[in-house]
């Protein structure tokens, strides 16, 4: 029994760009955003190659991204879900991971707040100390002034 093996045509980034009517840099940008979401296209000899299925994914992305107020990130997520490319898209990230990422900034906020509170208390103590010193100096000046006035009145008589 003979088996027929069909070899699917592979396209370069430039060829995909021509097919889609986009610039090669836009195709590379799409690839970058897909990679950020966990979708990786085939590499052969260090170069990206795309299949007909990949081109249909890019066609769909181009169509969805053209909608008003549709960001590229949202379009990538939508296409990934539609083609079942990534099991864990950003909408399905576990709560545990979200909790861990929230706990780290909260700990940093508490640490910064305690530092600020300590510095504030130290500054307050310094201000109170300086106010007491100023008050003591004024009182001392008043006493000297009154002594000189008393002495002056004695000598004037």
What descriptors fit this protein?
157 residues, mainly alpha, 2 strands, 69% helix
Write up this protein:
With 157 residues, this protein is an all-alpha fold. It contains five helices and two strands, in the order ααββααα. It has helices spanning 13-20, 24-36, 52-65, 72-82, 95-156; strands spanning 43-44, 47-48. Strands 1-2 form a two-stranded antiparallel sheet. A hairpin with a 2-residue loop joins strand 1 (43-44) and strand 2 (47-48).
Please state how the strands of the largest beta sheet are arranged side by side. Answer: 1-2
Order of helices and strands: HHEEHHH
SS summary, helix count: 5
Distance between the termini: 141 Å
Tally the beta strands. 2
Question: Regions with pLDDT < 50 over 5+ consecutive residues?
Answer: 88-93
Q: What class would the helix/strand composition place it in?
A: mainly alpha
Largest sheet: 2 strands, antiparallel
Radius of gyration: 37 Å
Mean pLDDT: 84
Helical percent range? Answer: 55-70%
Strand content: under 5%
Shape: rod-shaped
The oligomeric state of the chains shown is single chain
């Amino acid at each position: 029994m003979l088996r027929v093996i069909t070899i699917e045509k592979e396209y370069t980034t430039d060829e995909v760009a021509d097919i889609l009517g986009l610039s090669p840099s836009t195709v590379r940008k799409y690839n970058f955003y897909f990679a950020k979401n966990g979708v990786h296209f085939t590499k052969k000899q260090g170069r990206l190659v795309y299949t007909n299925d990949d081109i249909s994914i890019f066609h769909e992305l181009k169509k969805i991204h053209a909608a008003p107020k549709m960001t590229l990130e949202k379009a990538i997520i939508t296409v990934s879900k539609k083609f079942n490319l990534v099991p864990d898209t950003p909408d399905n990230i576990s709560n545990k991971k979200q909790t861990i990422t929230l706990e780290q900034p909260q700990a940093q906020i508490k640490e910064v707040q305690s530092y600020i509170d300590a510095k504030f208390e130290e500054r307050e103590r310094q201000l109170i100390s300086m106010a007491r010193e100023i008050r003591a100096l004024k009182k001392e000046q008043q006493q000297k002034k009154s002594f000189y006035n008393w002495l002056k009145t004695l000598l004037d008589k």
